[in-house]
Amino acid sequence: MSIGIIGAGAIGSAIARALARAGIDARIANRRGPASLAGLAAETGGRIRPVTVAEAAQSDLVFLAVNWSRLPDAVRGLGPWGGRIVIDTNNPIEAPAFRPFDLGGRSSSEIVAGLVPGARVVKAFNHLQPALLAGDPGAEGGRRVLFLAGDDAAAKGEVAQLVQRLGFAGIDLGALGEGGRLIQFPGGPLPSLNLVRFG
């Protein structure tokens, strides 16, 4: 399964480092172009390869890690998605103001799903701080928890397997609308919780 990352900020770069640490190859892209990511590629021993956004979007599984206000422009023209998995790592808030966006009563992942029609969207990798995502998933004799939510059971299964390969403990919170709200920041009760699963 090919893996792409769209967005190379704190979260996108942390995911890239986590993948490389686990020996998993991936492609990464940002709006500044592949040349701007040469340092990250070198740091990861070439496991993370800089490409264009269009190339990253053609992967079987695509991490979407872009500032909320830039999401519509970031995915415009990248379809059709054809059933590919899109992992929504985003939260509807941005620095430096950290004022929440008005979502009109919808969950952020439902909005993301509307931006990538035909994709199988899974909400994940958004509730831990970047340093914890990129660091050792083992803690206190257990494994750090990563929550996930989605409407497609097969897609969630693929993401759960990837979470396990990375060394984390995945916990399925159910459907996108309900489970996604639990890990959405702001508003959900689970963001930023650094939980450890034993056994």
Give structural notes.
The protein contains eight helices and ten strands. The chain has about 200 residues and is α/β, with parallel strands linked by helices. It has one domain (about 5-195): NAD(P)-binding Rossmann-like Domain (Rossmann fold, 3-Layer(aba) Sandwich), CATH 3.40.50. Strands 1, 2, 3, 4, 5, 6, 7, 8, 9 and 10 form a ten-stranded mixed sheet that branches. Helix 2 (about 40-45) links the parallel strand 2 and strand 3.
Label this structure with key terms.
single chain, 199 residues, alpha/beta, Rossmann fold, 21% strand, globular
Structure summary:
The protein contains eight helices and ten strands.
Task: Outline the secondary-structure elements.
Elements: E1 3-6, H1 10-21, E2 26-29, H2 38-43, E3 48-50, H3 53-57, E4 61-64, H4 71-75, E5 85-88, H5 108-115, E6 120-124, H6 130-134, E7 138-139, E8 142-150, H7 153-165, E9 169-172, H8 176-183, E10 196-197
What CATH architecture would you give? 3-Layer(aba) Sandwich
Structural domain tally: 1
Secondary structure: helix percent: 25-40%
How large, in whole angstroms, is the Cα Rg?
Answer: 15 Å
CATH class: Alpha Beta
- Separate helix tally: 8
- CATH topology tier name: Rossmann fold
Structural class: alpha/beta
Whole-number mean pLDDT: 93
Indicate the proportion of strand residues. 15-25%
What gross morphology would you assign?
A: globular
Query: Uncertain regions: pLDDT < 50 for 5+ in a row?
Result: none
Separation of termini? 28 Å
